[in-house]
């Protein structure tokens, strides 16, 4: 079975669980940005965990079923969904018959939707994954009109193991992100650390899968020396010379030369996938090792080793 792309949308990517464990090769894990929405879509259509689906940026996708009927589900950003011109439910398994056109509109809330197909999507794997990583030009390119997507056969014989979804009210216009201090919080002035724990920033239009660029109050450093490049992870809150925090997403670089003041918890880092420009963001980091030992100010380069 196949899906014919009649309208690809602004930026629709094939995504699965990504490529974890390859940072030493300069390859970030990537994969679905909103992992909760991606997992839910696969559960709704009864797929095995890890099946590849489509990640839609601002919807506007049109696909036609070719060579058979198939079961699909739309999760993530709340967008209108139609099959053969009739409105159908999101967060629910939907039958798409051979020849019918499925259309996803512009989300009313959120930014990224996920379209799962019974059997998962197939293609050429790179380092064991089907995930698109346009930053590194790795994996499939963004969808193009006229392209055909191959639907897998795994689990297609019997419709078993599907799930039910509970509506959560959709993405919020304000995000409170749990985080863990460090590893370089001691490079920042005490007032900057206090500001991170109580301030708010706005998501900018320059944000993408590499990172969420924020605008707002600036975080001042206590240590102004150059930092040797070191490993960074998804959710790392890096602070460049501008003082404006940048929260890394799934396609982040594997190393960076600016200090990381905190790391956003995994599930909360996923929530950034749905944050539109203008959404406000706050951080709620846990107590740091500086607070636990009594804040004696930034460590000297010699003491840091």
TrEMBL record:
<keyword id="KW-0547">Nucleotide-binding</keyword>
<dbReference type="InterPro" id="IPR029000">
    <property type="entry name" value="Cyclophilin-like_dom_sf"/>
</dbReference>
<keyword id="KW-0378">Hydrolase</keyword>
<protein>
    <submittedName>
        <fullName>Biotin-dependent carboxyltransferase family protein</fullName>
    </submittedName>
</protein>
<dbReference type="InterPro" id="IPR052708">
    <property type="entry name" value="PxpC"/>
</dbReference>
<dbReference type="Pfam" id="PF02626">
    <property type="entry name" value="CT_A_B"/>
</dbReference>
<feature type="region of interest" description="Disordered">
    <location>
        <begin position="286"/>
        <end position="305"/>
    </location>
</feature>
<feature type="domain" description="Carboxyltransferase">
    <location>
        <begin position="24"/>
        <end position="299"/>
    </location>
</feature>
<keyword id="KW-0067">ATP-binding</keyword>
<dbReference type="InterPro" id="IPR003778">
    <property type="entry name" value="CT_A_B"/>
</dbReference>
